[in-house]
Amino acid sequence: MGNNYTMKCFFNLPSFIYSIANLLSDLGFKPILVGGAVRDHLLAKPCRDYDIEVFDCPSLDLLVPVLKQFGSVCLIGKSFSVVTLRINHLVLDFSLPRIDIKSGKKHNDFNVLISSKLSYSEAASRRDFTINSMGYDLINHVLIDPYDGFFDLNQRLLRHIAPSFIDDPLRVLRAAQISSRYGLSLDLRTINMCRSIDLSEISKERYYGEFQKLI
To answer: CA-CA distance, 130 to 20, in Å (whole number)?
Structure first.
């Protein structure tokens, strides 16, 4: 893990999330809450979907016995290093750290490199915007923020993380729906980058999915 701790804090999450995290920690793994759940908690918005990235875990198979103690486990996403846990109306996706490497011109042409030994900043670099790159250490109760997402969130600013932003044209639609949903201003460099991206490869279904989130 990198030294990207920015502040001590405590997220008021469902208690079973901390119970799962403690069991994973007992096995030597490092569970980090990531993505939109971190952003939404900091904005005091409700959340029903949680993404937890598990560092220092060599295989998803080691997570399954722990997760089955709490609810229904689905392995459909295993090829992408994701296992899903459903507990009543809540959905939790557990994954191993990965990097996405562009392999073609289409928006979904990526090779996935999975490695439990990636630093948090390396794993978070594949995400789209800084406000989605923050992590919450479920064991040490600290916010991990390698790309200044907390600052941008307080400034109500939506900013891309890296030049690789252009590798996925769907991110242009995500920029539109996220900035609208959360009342954010787009960073000028992000706007210029969005204008340079060809959207012709995006399917109607993906357009519908992003506008559905907006509505």
So the answer is: 27
CA angle 57, 63, 66 (to 5 degrees): 135
| Residue 56 neighbours by CB under 8 Å, 6+ apart | 28, 29, 30, 116, 117
Nearest to 110, CA basis, from 89, 71, 79, 76: 79
pTM of the model: 0.89
In terms of C-beta density within 10 A (0-12 exposed, 13-18 middle, 19 or more buried), how is residue 134 classed? buried
Token digits of residue 123: 């794993």
- Give pLDDT tens digits along the chain (215 positions): 445 667 889 999 999 999 999 999 999 999 999 999 999 999 999 898 999 999 999 999 999 999 999 999 998 776 678 999 999 889 999 999 987 665 556 556 566 778 888 899 999 998 999 999 999 999 999 999 999 999 999 999 999 999 889 888 999 999 999 999 999 999 999 999 999 998 988 888 888 888 888 77
Q: Sign of dihedral through CA atoms 32, 194, 181, 130?
A: positive
> Using CA atoms, how far apart are residues 87 and 201, in angstroms rounded to an integer?
36
What tokens appear for 97 in the block?
């750290």
What span, in angstroms and rounded, lies between the C-alpha atoms of 127 and 97?
12
Q: Are 30 and 54 in contact (CB under 8 A)?
A: yes
Indicate the residue type of 126. R
How far apart, in whole angstroms, are the C-alpha atoms of residue 115 and residue 121?
13
